[in-house]
Design brief:
Structural class: alpha+beta
Order of helices and strands: HHHEEEEHEE
Shape: globular
Helix content: 25-40%
Oligomer: single chain
Length: about 160
């Protein structure tokens, strides 16, 4: 979503629902274009900063390591994984990923959440596996864990930079 001052913000799953292409194709198209430009910018940052050999696109850049929640959220949104969403009252209204800080610095937690009774718990194995594949292609290590009430989540960290 576009944040304060018009700056692009990747969907973390704790914001409003993204534009519905059926209800507002123009807004959905603008959002898709914003995500595409932000993702291409991220790849360009990688090419410019990851100069120690190998594929520069395969390793998170320093910017990503300093802002891992934003970087992981952008990677998932660019991969077409749907974010969860909240209504104005803070109630979860859509199933999808939720990205937040992990327990350790530089670590990110990815959950699959949805409205109560909406089936997100039954989708989480498949959905989190899709998230892990999308992140691993971009140089993030995504390990699956089982938490309280047997709900699963990913703990995500950037792979070590070469050098």
């Amino acid at each position: 979503m576009t944040g304060a001052g018009g700056a692009f913000e990747a969907a973390t799953g704790d914001g409003p629902p993204p534009p519905d292409p059926a209800a507002d194709p123009a807004a959905a198209g603008r959002r898709a274009a914003e995500v595409r430009v932000a993702y291409e910018g991220l790849l360009q940052i990688r090419r410019l900063t990851n100069t120690t050999g190998g594929d520069p696109g395969a390793v998170p850049a320093p910017w990503e390591r300093n802002q891992p929640v934003r970087a992981v959220a952008l990677a998932l949104e660019a991969a077409g994984v749907p974010p969860s969403a909240l209504d104005a009252g803070g109630r979860r209204v859509r199933a999808g990923y939720r990205v937040g800080p992990g327990e350790r610095p530089g670590q990110v937690r990815v959950e699959w959440l949805g409205p109560p009774g909406g089936g997100a718990a039954q989708e989480e194995d498949t959905a989190l596996a899709e998230c892990a594949r999308a992140l691993e292609r971009l140089g993030w290590e995504a390990l699956l864990y089982r938490g309280p009430r047997r709900r699963r989540h990913l703990e995500v960290e950037p792979i070590p930079a070469p050098g």
